[in-house]
Each structure stands twice: as structure tokens, then as C-alpha cells.
Amino acid sequence: DERTIPLILSSFQNLCSRYNAEEHEESSLKDYIILIIDELSKNLVKPDDSKSKQSTIILASIASTNLNVSNLVISRTFPVLLSYLIPQDTETASEQKILTTRQQRSLIINVSFFLDAYYRLYNLDNLKIENIQQNCSIFKFKDQILSLIQQTLVSSSTVEITLRCLSIKLIAKAFELKQFLDLNEKTLLLEILTDILLNDNNLNTYN
Fold it and tell me: Do 38 and 55 form a contact (C-beta atoms < 8 A)?
């Protein structure tokens, strides 16, 4: 029931706000938070699972609590969330599944919730840390996020407007994030986006 989500979010955020990696490295609080994360992450295996979006909203909300919780959530959630995009070993690579258009749309939406969490931490709360790429777990998965954006932009047809628009919105969101994209990444995304839009004759893309 979606009406219960705000109450659940409030409870989890209050709990997670107490977590500090140095103080609670070996504690029941960390174990309980990990239990919550791992149970919710099970619903992310299939992007279009009926519980995937709700679970992602809760996880992203938890991740926006503080840097320690964010790193804990990202490190345990993204290997599941982005499993289709993370390189597989040679024995299983041939078995890697291809996402349907519906699953790609759901995955884009789910990733955007985590970028919102990043935005709240670093843009709104103005969190400043040294060596952000080494100390923020989401950077370990940035290549997969950028790959998702590029794949959905390039592979989506001009008829599949929803997926293309979601990809464009995700690019705009990534550009807003402090210290997330470097100059080369911004340039590459702009080049791809410009090329896509110049060759897109579907007026609905611009609405």
C-alpha cells in the first residue's frame, strides 16, 4: 500500500540518521540497517518487479540520510540494481540477459531516485568531503550509469518516446549534481544528445 510509504520512510530515516561508520562499525544498528537494505534489494533484481519502484524509493530515501548510510546502501544495492550492466566473467557473459524496453524504463527511473539522493546530500545539504570519488560509493558505478544512459539513448527508436525522454531527463539530472561528471563526460553526453536530437523527427520528444 503506497499510503504507508511516507511512514516507513520517516521511520527508516530516523533510524539511519543515528548511524556513523566509525562508531557503529561492529554494532547491532549496522546489522539491522544492512538487513533492511538487503531485504529491499531483493526486489531490484528485475527492474519491472511490482515491488521494485517502492523498494528503490525507500532505499534512496535512506541513502540521502548521510554519507555513511549512503555508502552502505549504494555498495550493497547497486551490484543488484545494475547487474545487467556490470561486466560478467567469461563463463556467464553469454548468459547475460537483455533488458526489455519496459525494464529499461524502470531501471532508468530507479537510478534517478538514487541520483536524487546524491542531489539532496551534496547539492541541498551542501555536504563537502575530500576526494569525493574515493569516498563516495556511487562513483564506483558511474561507468554503468553512463553506459545505461548512452545505451537507452542510442538504442531507443524515435517511436519509443518515453524511454528516450527518461534518458534525456537523467542526463539533465546528472549535469546538476555537484562534482559528479567531469568535463570529458559532459562533453561526450552532450555530443550524443545533440546527435540524437538532430536526427529525431518525432515532435513528441520535445514536448
Answer: no
What torsion do the CA atoms of 67, 150, 47, 137 make, to the nearest 10 degrees? Answer: -20
Kindly write down the DSSP assignment for every residue of 127-158, as one continuous string: ---SSHHHH-GGGGGHHHHHHHHHHHHHHS-T
CA dihedral 90, 95, 96, 98 (to 10 degrees): 150
Place of cell 562533453: 187
Provide the whole-model pTM.
Answer: 0.85
For the chain (207 residues), the mean pLDDT of every run of 10, in chain order, is: 67 76 67 91 92 93 90 95 73 60 93 95 81 90 93 73 90 94 94 84 58
Quote the cell numbers at residue 21. Answer: 561508520
Distance CA 8, CA 3 (A): 10
